[in-house]
UniProtKB/TrEMBL annotation:
<keyword id="KW-0812">Transmembrane</keyword>
<keyword id="KW-0472">Membrane</keyword>
<feature type="transmembrane region" description="Helical">
    <location>
        <begin position="14"/>
        <end position="35"/>
    </location>
</feature>
<feature type="coiled-coil region">
    <location>
        <begin position="230"/>
        <end position="264"/>
    </location>
</feature>
<keyword id="KW-1133">Transmembrane helix</keyword>
<keyword id="KW-0175">Coiled coil</keyword>
<feature type="transmembrane region" description="Helical">
    <location>
        <begin position="321"/>
        <end position="343"/>
    </location>
</feature>
<protein>
    <recommendedName>
        <fullName>DUF4349 domain-containing protein</fullName>
    </recommendedName>
</protein>
Amino acid sequence: MQLLQNVNFDLKRVLKIGGITLVALILISLAVTLVSSTVKTIARRGGVSVMQSGGGDSFSLGNMAMEESAIAYDSAKGMALGAPTLSARNIAPIPPIDGGGTTGSDAEAYEVTQYRGMIETRNKDEACKALFDLKAKDYVIFEQANTYDRGCNVTFKVVRDRVDKVVVIVKSMDPKEFVENSHTIKSQVEDYTSEIGILQKKQAVIEDTLNRAMAAYDEITTLATQTRDAESLARVINSKIQTIERLTNERINISTQLDRLTRSKAEQLDKLDYTYFYLNVIENKYLDGQSIKDSWKAAIREFVRDVNKVAQDVSVNLVPFFLRVLQYLLYAFIILVIAKYAWHLAKRIWKGPATPQI
């Protein structure tokens, strides 16, 4: 404790030490911020470089284009026919809708085939034009066609006996992925046929009930009119109106279901006569000016954010930092004073009361 008593609490020296300490802390904070920002940037760009060298394709020009095309295709299919897109998320062949088996030996008579492909090209205009030119052929029916900045996608169906010609054309474009999917739709067709038959019988019953109810009400109305029973006539008319309304609503509901099922069955049977193609074209250039421009923009934005963060750390954020340092210095000073007087008190208690001199 003798050391504490010998400490010189000169105000100038304390302020000098505090100022040097504060400047040192600011410099250390600035250095740590710049180094951490640089390390993060290098690590992030290093991750992109690894992906580029490992995959053989440019991350910014390839994978980014594929994701952009997938997003564009997803938006287009939501507004159009709902045709699925070929992207990194669903590159595998889509399984049949009905995962169960079929009965009988005629399942192959209901077999349908679909082709899905992704074409990477250096010139998307030329590749898309080659696909759009198929529209002029009488055996090709386009159902959807979309173009966007980095490519296009098309959905069309081809008469089954001309499928080989279209397959040759698509393969000549060297697609990166070209998947053939075949499955039977026998179960779906049989289900639609069964449901349509049930609804048709129900519709016939409702029509017959409605006709018989109308005839019965007419007879009752005639009888009530002849007997001049106004009350009974009013009840008969009211009941007739309610019955007609109820049966008419049921007839409309059944007709709506029949139309929907008939249309769905026709769409399934249409697949027996045609083969569907879902093709996606992606532009993947070795030197893409737009991608380079976007990367520079991103790098400049990140640089501005880093500089802004450093400027805030050495200006606005410096005030609360200084207050925190001042707070801890005050705590340290208070503890030091308390420790000093506690030490003196402990020494007095340890030595005990002074012995009086005789």
